[in-house]
Write a structure and sequence with these properties.
By secondary structure, the protein is mainly β. About 10% of the residues lie in helices and about 45% in strands. The chain has 3 helices and 9 strands, in the order H-H-E-E-E-E-E-E-E-E-H-E.
Length: about 190
């Protein structure tokens, strides 16, 4: 599985808009981890339109400078973390847009590194389109254990449900999701 996010993958639709709560990369391991539990909101009256039917999830982007983090030791690379595949899911409950975001990445040993367990700090933020400051920002920590005799491993993070005000079915025009490895270009901070 290739874990580099490239323009080719983006244009190929791996991160395409999802509707009705499905994933742009349906069937992937990461996509399978994102399933929502049964809706907990009230039932929709047949007379009311269900906004989940035509819902378009916000796009997921890796923040500029936030795709990778190198840890150095005496001028040589000790280890490096990089973001690979991204997935998201969304639905509307009680006039709130509820999102789940999945991040899969790679941890690599450098010439100065040795097998160990590493903590990968990742921030997942949701911001209104056109604004710099996130509406919501959450920090996560993934463990990436590289055993003896190996030089790399993968890590996976699946966010908790992130809730923001529902604006419209075209949620991709209202919000965007920004993912980054902490320490790689600064951390986004939520508005207070």
């Amino acid at each position: 599985m290739r874990l580099r996010v490239t323009a080719a993958l983006l244009s190929a639709g791996v991160l395409s808009a999802c509707s009705g709560g499905s994933l742009g990369s349906a069937g992937s391991t990461l996509g399978n981890l994102l399933s929502f539990s049964a809706p907990s909101g009230p039932a929709v009256s047949p007379l009311d339109k269900d906004p989940n039917v035509d819902l378009v999830c916000p796009d997921v982007h890796v923040r500029e400078g936030g795709a990778a983090l190198r840890v150095m030791a005496g001028g040589a690379v000790r280890h490096q973390f990089s973001i690979g595949e991204l997935a998201r899911q969304c639905r509307v409950i009680d006039k709130r847009l509820v999102l789940k975001v999945g991040v899969e990445g790679k941890a690599l040993l450098g010439p100065a590194g040795s097998p160990s367990a590493f903590t990968v700090p990742v921030t997942i933020a949701v911001r209104k389109n056109g604004e710099e400051r996130p509406f919501v920002a959450r920090s996560y920590r993934a463990t990436a254990a590289i055993p003896a005799g190996q030089s790399q491993t993968t890590f996976t993070i699946v966010s908790d449900e992130i809730s923001v005000p529902f604006v419209s079915e075209a949620a991709n025009e209202d919000y965007e999701i920004i993912v980054s490895i902490d320490g790689a270009g600064g951390e986004p901070r939520a508005r207070r």
